Amino acid sequence: SLSSSSVIIVGAGISGIAAAKVLAENGVQDMVILEATERIGGRIRKEEFGGLNVEIGAGWIQGVGGKQSNPVWELATKSGLKTCYSDYSNARFNIYDQSGNIFPREVAADSYNRAVESAIRELRNEEEENLPSISSITEPPMVPKTPIELAIDFILHDFEMAEVEPIATYTDFGEREFLVADERGYEHLLYKMAENFLLTKDGDIIDNRLKLNKVVSEVEYSKNGVTVKTEDGSFYKAKYIILSASVGVLQSDLITFSPPLPKWKTEAIQKVDVIVYTKIFLKFPYKFWPCGPGTEFFLYAHEKRGYYTFWQHMENAYPGSNILVVTLTNEESKRVERQGDEETLKEAMGALRDMFGSQIPDASHILVPKWWNNRFQRGSYTNYPILSNPLHFAGIKAPVGPIFFTGEHTHERFNGYVHGGYLSGIDTSNNLLEAMRKEEERRTIQSSPF
Length: 450
Ligand code: FAD
Hints:
Largest sheet: 8 strands, mixed
Number of helices: 12
Bound molecules: flavin-adenine dinucleotide
Structural class: alpha/beta
Shape: globular
């Protein structure tokens, strides 16, 4: 079968849905959205765990309370999404050693301040190296060695870089962060957005322009348009295509382009660094960790950097659920994805017994999301180097003929975040609408008798 429309959108994550909404609002109704999985949301994804819904992808709305308002916070407020204030800066004061002692506050604060100063020095040194003919005597950065230094190094670089250098999300939108705590899930925001332009019934999208379980495998393009092939053998034709697949997917061989994408584009894609971020959920028969103000986050200091370091109790979001979350990143994420979940459970329990004693109960449930081995993701989000080149973004974003790129990775200021995905979708559709207008003008001039 061959269906034809103006625009094909690949991917129904927040960028794809936002892009589709902008097109619809501007009169482009004949579109088709092809989504590889059985659901919308992409990296915004709830999953049933131990009797409730938890967020295995994005969990926070980051950047609230500043001069400008975060558009995702606005969406959340409008749709009545339940959230709770969350402050992971308390983690640095709840650091456990392997015998279950908490480091004294002054010791923790001192280690933290030294790590921040060293990170700032390192950043300055890098900046200076990038400037021609400035020579300076630079102090070498501190190399973290002890378990507490390693734990702090881990949270500083993976969670709190805003302490070291300005991050647009926090400077623009404010420093507060809210954890989504809603049974309908973070993805409720996407359903609310979709309601504006797709046919829905009882909260489900029944519009046949949204095609689920459609894995795009080939994109054939020319200046006249695109033909897309999906893995189940269907074909779709359109004048334009908006591609929202993650940069991890673009780096993989899931989608073949014909002709191949130009070198400047593939080079820009290959240069992006993708972070793997894994939230492991554990459910217990009862609580054995401290609760109350200042306890939401705690750290496990171990001699291996990033080894079950960062813990969060879910009492604020899901009171009485007895759920803990431990976050792994990058190499540790990849390592646990390769092993069985029983092995991961054993390791996590080992860390917890070091901190809380051997008498604590075993977890009754474990959930280990696998973003790295997910062929529709290949990682969690992008991480551009702090001193990145603006031309690099231009390359990631720029269209190739009728192919328009979108997704968090195409947003220069807010890449890596939900609001980056959302704003990139709006941006890309506005660029496409502009291209369509120009094309229309050209055609009118050509067909004009004068
Ligand atoms: P996606 O959501 O990935 O959407 C792309 C869609 O394309 C997907 O649905 C995918 O299935 C589909 N697709 C891919 N390939 C194909 C194909 N070949 N054919 C058809 N469809 C295809 N951000 C925050 O702001 N706060 C957080 O707390 C936060 N935490 C995170 C934690 C984790 C574990 C992860 C994974 C991400 C987190 N993020 C967070 C980042 C945030 O989730 C993303 O930046 C954002 O959701 C990306 O949206 P997107 O539309 O760009 O991409």
